[in-house]
Amino acid sequence: MMRKSFDEQLRELGDELTEMGALCETAIANAAQALFEGDGKFAQEAVRADDEIDNRERKIEALCLKLLLRQQPVARDLRQISSALKMITDMERIGDQARDIAEITRYVNLQHVEPALSIKEMAQHTIKMVTESISAYVNRDLEQAYAAIDHDDVVDALFDKVRGELIALIANNPEHGEQALDLLMIAKYFERIGDHATNIAEWVEFSLTGKHRADEQ
What we know:
217 residues, mainly alpha
């Protein structure tokens, strides 16, 4: 009977993580739309999603602690619970960085700025990474986790490309210097979101295999 109750709570944990992951995707997508469409309502939606992500983090943390304290989890359960605790930290940071992007969009105008296309591509790949990493957890899919981890190289390469384009923009049009710095900050936030998505995928790998890449380095 106790095991049945425990399994039900584990399923609840999975559902909560899935919903928190969906909120992360919503926050990033709205921040990106605010950036490329210049519409403040999308920025507000990104901020609202971040607030809900913070609420979910507290709820999931409490559920994990309850599972650890009230039950007697076996090794596989412990991996799943400890991975969830690590993952929600990265998800919370993704929400924060989406919010940061949304707030910067109030001061940025991407019209007629050449690096805009590269930043847009970077945003698309970053959203894909977050989707892949969350989906890997939901589906307990190791290959999908590996795909998200590998995808980080694409985001890093795009960040280098954006940085080079912004340096050229400042060199050729010094009057755009302040805007270029804002755009570089946005690109850096997207890169960090990619790093957090990688972390999530690595914790999915740990939950399934018992091995974590940090331990092998």
